[in-house]
From TrEMBL:
UniProt-annotated stretches for the region Disordered: 48-95
Taxonomic lineage: Archaea, Methanobacteriati, Methanobacteriota, Stenosarchaea group, Halobacteria
Source taxon at top rank: Archaea
Organism expressing this protein natively: Haloplanus rubicundus
Entry keyword annotation includes Protein transport: no
Annotated SUPFAM superfamilies: Nucleic acid-binding proteins
Keywords: Plasmid
Biased composition (Basic and acidic residues): 56-68
TRAM domain mapped to chain residues: 77-136
Keyword Repeat set for record: no
UniProt-listed Pfam families: TRAM
The protein's name in its UniProt record: TRAM domain-containing protein
Length: 142
């Protein structure tokens, strides 16, 4: 399993494109709008190859010819209305709790502090982040 550092600011999918003699990864505008990244700032980037799966969850074995590959961002690992138990790992710039679930996907939880283990309901899902509310607070914080 890949260790996700507390300093993780963003997770998104993008396609590497060639532009003249350089290769470019485009950052979605939502990352700028949500202050995950800022233009002109240098970031450390991890790159993972997208591996689509079949409906049964098995890996597709595709041709090694990279020109035949199509890029589809992975679906978020949560759904609106889903109830889950999470651990709040850190606090974001706006003071909200941040939990990470499968694949390092970020869930923002207002009124939560690092170490809290609340039960949450996912209220809004975006490609790279979800927003949730606490439905059952961590009993240790009552």
């Amino acid at each position: 399993m890949v260790e996700i550092p507390d300093s993780l600011r963003s997770v998104f999918s993008a396609t590497v494109r060639q532009r003249d003699e350089e290769y470019v990864v485009e950052v979605p505008s939502g990352e700028i709008a949500h202050d995950a990244v800022s233009p002109g700032t240098t970031y450390r980037v991890a790159v993972f190859e997208s591996s689509p799966t079949t409906e049964g969850g098995e890996r597709n074995h595709r041709s090694s010819d990279r020109s035949q590959r199509t890029s589809h961002p992975p679906e978020p690992p949560v759904e609106e209305g889903e109830i889950r138990d999470v651990t709040i790992e850190t606090v974001g710039d706006q003071g909200d709790g941040i939990a990470k679930v499968e694949r390092g996907y970020v869930v923002i939880v207002p009124d939560a502090q690092p170490g809290d283990e609340p039960t949450i309901e996912i209220e809004q899902v975006q490609q790279n982040v979800a927003f949730a509310s606490i439905v059952d607070p961590d009993p240790r914080t009552l």
